[in-house]
Design brief:
Elements (H helix, E strand, L loop, with lengths): L1 H34 L2 H25 L11 H6 L5 H38 L7 H24 L24 H20 L2 H6 L4 H10 L3 H16 L9 H28 L4 H4 L16 E2 L5 E5 L2 E5 L15 H12 L4 H7 L3 H6 L20 E3 L2 E2 L4
Antiparallel strand pairs: 1-5, 2-3, 2-4
Helix pairs in contact: 1-2, 1-10, 2-4, 2-10, 4-5, 4-6, 4-10, 5-6, 6-9, 9-10
Membrane topology: Multi-pass membrane protein
Keywords: Membrane, Transmembrane, Transmembrane helix
Pfam families: Fung_rhodopsin
Length: 396
Amino acid sequence: MAGNFIIEAWTELGIAIVFILLRLYFRFSQVGLRGMTLDDFLMLFAGALYAVETAAAHVIVAVWLGMGNNNFTPEQRAALEPGSQTWQYAVYGSKGHIVGWFMYTGLIWTLKACWTIYYSRMTDGVQKMDIRIKVAWFLNGTTYIAAVSMILFKCWPLHRQWQINPDPGNNCYPGASKLSVSFITSINTITDMYLMAIPLPIIYRAKLDIKKKISLIILFSGGWIVIIFGLLRCITLVSVGPTEPSESGQWSVRESFVAVLVSNTPMVFPLLKRWAGIASSHSASGSYPLHEYDKSDGSKLKSIGSTTMRSRGRKKSRGGFVHPLSIPNDTAWGSDEAIVGAEQSGKAGKGSEAVVQEGEERFASGRGSKSGRGVGSGSAGPGNIVMTREWQVSDA
């Protein structure tokens, strides 16, 4: 049984590391090292945490036989000789579970930060979305502190969490504490659900058909898979017998594996699709190939997704033209930015409607509008309006 888990754990780690490296390769090949953003580097940190978590689970299962201070009856505790091999396995196993908990929470909340950074870019300039991002950061920070505090202070002083005799109680079982696993699973689920809800208002207001809206909702709902694994982990640990070996490490590794894949798949999929030669089949239907990144600015893709109007230093989102949506498209994020432009277009005034009628070609080529003003010019006189189009491309 232990051998099967060890094979599973290291295989999952290998796949997760490959996904992270593919994501970084994709980003580097498009924007270079200077164009990479904080969430890219945080993903490297997440990979390191996942590796340590897997190593801790390996040692707990293979070396310390999955033991902890929860594996004894009162009679066995009284009879157990301090310093014996069984006693050492239980003590070291309990300490290993504590390390695993720290790695698990660090990884999961690092991935939440990556998603929040992405959403902050995706919703930049969209009215009433800044507060949602601030709430997300507040939830991420406070819930992480709460999770770490639960790991440390659910049983204090700390050495009681590897105490054998007398029985320290369920709260002091690092691998089987019902309070700890229930609390951390709850706040993890709440924050995941909130993060998945951030783009929903934009999708709802977007001028898209129902199929495309459903596709976008699915794109942003991968967190449900992580939630399901988290709940399975919680149920398994809460229902473990009082003297049975804990499976905390095994289920933590599984949930972490799924979380890493969900967070990186949107960046890895278009790369694999390009390598498979599938991307060309989408270019005719409105998707943009990977080479359309504007490499002078790694976060922007020239397109017709939205209209930005700047007048006297103030920027207002305008326009009603929405780029044809393809899910998933070659950059995976073009669709996300299209819904921002679509949501904003619903609030455009009559002046923007005249702009829309000028057609896609006029804006793409930088030719003048009806008034004869240049579009895309780098300068404008006082009081004039400069109209540009930008497509924001970023990653989770």
